[in-house]
Design a protein that fits this description.
mainly alpha
Length: 251
C-alpha cells in the first residue's frame, strides 16, 4: 500500500512538472496587443492616431459638457439645497439625487437632442454633410437653448470681458462666451429657488426652537424635533411633485 501511494505521488509530481507547463504553453497561444511609437514617412499614417486622441478627449470631457451645457446644474443644485434645508443629512443620497437630476436633464434636453440628431448627426452619418457642417448644425439648437436661459446681463459681462468686435445677433455669440454666461445664470436661478425652499423650513426651525426654549428644554437639539415636522409638511404639499414641476416648467 505504501509503495502504491509513493508511486501515485511521484506520478502527480511528474505531471505537475512536465505535462502541465507544456499544456499551459499550448493553450496560451493568444494574440498579443502592443502599443509603441515608430517613425513613418507618410502623413496619412498620423490621421487615425489623431482621431483616436480626439475621441478620447471628447469622452473625457463628456461629463463636463453634460453638466455645463444642459439643465443639470440648476436641477442638482436645487436638490442639494432641498436636502440641506430639511436637515436629512445624506437622505436622499448623492447617487439618488444625481441620478434623478440626470434623468430630468435628459427629459428637458430631449427636444434639443432630437434636433441635433436629425439636423446634424444623421446627415453626417449618411455622408450628406461634412464634419464642420455637422458641428455648426449641432451647435445651433444647443445655443438656442442656452440663450433662452441666459440673462442678458451675464451675457453682456462676458462679451465685454472678451473684447473685440461685439456680435450683431444672438446667433453670432460664440460658445466660449455663451457657456460661462449660461452657467452663472443657472447658478443664480438655482440659488433663488434654494432661498425659497429654505423659508418654510426656517420658519419650522424658529417655531420649534421657541417652543423648546419656552418649555425649558434647552439641551434638546431643535433639529431633531423639527425634522419630522419638515418631512410632514413636505409630504402633505407633495413636495417632489411641486419641485420637479417648477423645475421642468422653468425651462
Amino acid at each position: 500500500m505504501k509503495n502504491k501511494k509513493v508511486f501515485r505521488i511521484l506520478v502527480i509530481i511528474l505531471l505537475a512538472v512536465f505535462v502541465v507547463p507544456a499544456w499551459v504553453d499550448a493553450q496560451s497561444a493568444l494574440p498579443k496587443i502592443s502599443i509603441g511609437v515608430s517613425k513613418s514617412n507618410s502623413p496619412a499614417d498620423l490621421v487615425p492616431t489623431m482621431q483616436i486622441l480626439f475621441m478620447i478627449t471628447i469622452l473625457s470631457l463628456a461629463p463636463s459638457i453634460l453638466i455645463m451645457m444642459t439643465s443639470f446644474t440648476r436641477i442638482v443644485v436645487v436638490f442639494h439645497f432641498l436636502r440641506q434645508s430639511m436637515a436629512t443629512q445624506n437622505v436622499p443620497s448623492n447617487q439618488i439625487l444625481v441620478g434623478l437630476a440626470l434623468f430630468l436633464t435628459f427629459f428637458v434636453m430631449k427636444p434639443v437632442i432630437d434636433q441635433v440628431n436629425s439636423q446634424a448627426l444623421q446627415p453626417y452619418l449618411h455622408k450628406q454633410i461634412t464634419q464642420q457642417e455637422a458641428l455648426d448644425r449641432a451647435s445651433k439648437p444647443v445655443k438656442a437653448f442656452m440663450l433662452k436661459q441666459t440673462r442678458r446681463k451675464d451675457l453682456k459681462l462676458f462679451i465685454d470681458l472678451r473684447g473685440g468686435d461685439k456680435p450683431k445677433t444672438a446667433a453670432d455669440v460664440s460658445l466660449s462666451t455663451l457657456i460661462p454666461a449660461f452657467i452663472i445664470s443657472e447658478l443664480k436661478t438655482a440659488f433663488q429657488i434654494g432661498f425659497l425652499l429654505y423659508l418654510p423650513m426656517l420658519l419650522i426651525d424658529l417655531v420649534v426652537g421657541s417652543v423648546l426654549l419656552s418649555m425649558g428644554m434647552m439641551m434638546l437639539p431643535p433639529v431633531m424635533i423639527a425634522m419630522p415636522f419638515k418631512l410632514l409638511l413636505f409630504v402633505l404639499v407633495d413636495g417632489w411633485y411641486l419641485i420637479v414641476e417648477s423645475l421642468i416648467r422653468g425651462f
